[in-house]
């Protein structure tokens, strides 16, 4: 057990012949007691500081561990968010590709249908053109015949028509003047 200032103070030395000077020894012991008390006080203060710093260090260590755990959790959460984002973006891209394929296929189908309709219209227009050409040629042939010239030379007068119809009236067919005007 270490000495206390009280132990030093209460220590009694035996006196010998030609021993040390008692006043000097007592003075020196008093100085040792004071210095020893200072050292003990400083030791106690340092122990309290060490204890306080140990507690503070413990709190800091706990805080550091908590921060490290938080960082790990944040990193894991960030990684999870990144993975989820990648999966979601892949799904979005896949869906967009499906939609694009569907749109392209629909457009190709419509284009094929339109191409078929165009071909059909071309065929119909060719048939119509040929028929119309034949009709026009037939009409031109009709116009180019001499029948028109004979028709233009034919004189149709009201008297001739009435006589012609009188003959038909006898047969039971009668034409009024209004109908006759409409015929002309």
Could you walk me through the main structural features you see in this protein, from its secondary elements to its overall organization?
By secondary structure, the protein is mainly α. It folds into 2 domains: 5-153; 154-184, no CATH class. 85% of the residues lie in helices and 0% in strands. The termini are far apart. The relative contact order is 0.03.
What is the oligomer described by this structure? single chain
Q: Give the percentage of residues in beta strands.
A: under 5%
Class by alpha and beta content: mainly alpha
Compute the number of structural domains: 2
Instruction: Count all strands and give the number.
Output: 0
SSE succession: HHHHH
The count of helical stretches stands at 5
Distance between the termini: 159 Å
Write a brief caption for the model.
The chain is mainly α. It has helices spanning 5-10, 22-144, 147-153, 158-170, 177-183.
Please describe the topology of this protein.
Blueprint: H1 5-10, H2 22-144, H3 147-153, H4 158-170, H5 177-183
